[in-house]
Amino acid sequence: MKASNVVFIFVLLYINASTEWPTHTVCKEDNLEIYYKSCDSQQDFAFSIDRCSDVTTHTFNIRAAIVLSNIKELYAKVELIMNGKTFLTYSEVLCEPGHSKFIFCGKKKGEHVYYEGPVTLLIKEIPQGDYTISAKLTNEDHVTVACADFTVKNYLDY
Would you write out the chain's pLDDT as a tens digit for each of its 158 residues? Predict the structure, then answer.
């Protein structure tokens, strides 16, 4: 097992005595900062990117790991929130019976998933300013599999 996998699993299994998970730094550079905090009371998860500047290319590599609930079906919902108002909502079915798009579809409770690979943003420009991206994964029973609020501070001029 690679050392990075061991670190991710440790983060996933870390028990926090407080009622909230810590805020994690994804990246912090001169003009762009990204942080996240799990909004799932049951578990935290691991997420990283190589460099902040990669985000501006709209396709960049991520690494993510989580311990799962059962997922025969998996639904994703992402919202862009600025000044308390939702400006963009995106939903997608990631896993459904007989049509699995990803290798983690069909995993059982307690199994962990580690994903390393490309992600492409669905927007042409990352909005300048401070805002929140709320992301939530739920299974067929509407149970939260993963949930996080990302804080983005973007001061880049395009």
Answer: 555 554 445 455 554 445 689 999 999 988 889 999 998 888 888 999 988 878 877 788 999 888 877 778 889 999 989 878 888 899 999 888 877 777 778 778 788 888 888 888 777 777 788 899 999 988 888 888 889 999 999 886 65
- The DSSP element (H or E) to which 86 belongs, if any, is strand 85-95
55 three-state secondary structure: helix
Q: Tokens standing for 24?
A: 């994690």
The one-character DSSP state at 42 is S
Kindly report the pTM of this predicted structure: 0.77
4 domain-assigned: no
| Residue-range definition of the domain harbouring residue 111 | 21-154
- Provide the CATH number for the domain around residue 103: 2.60.40.770
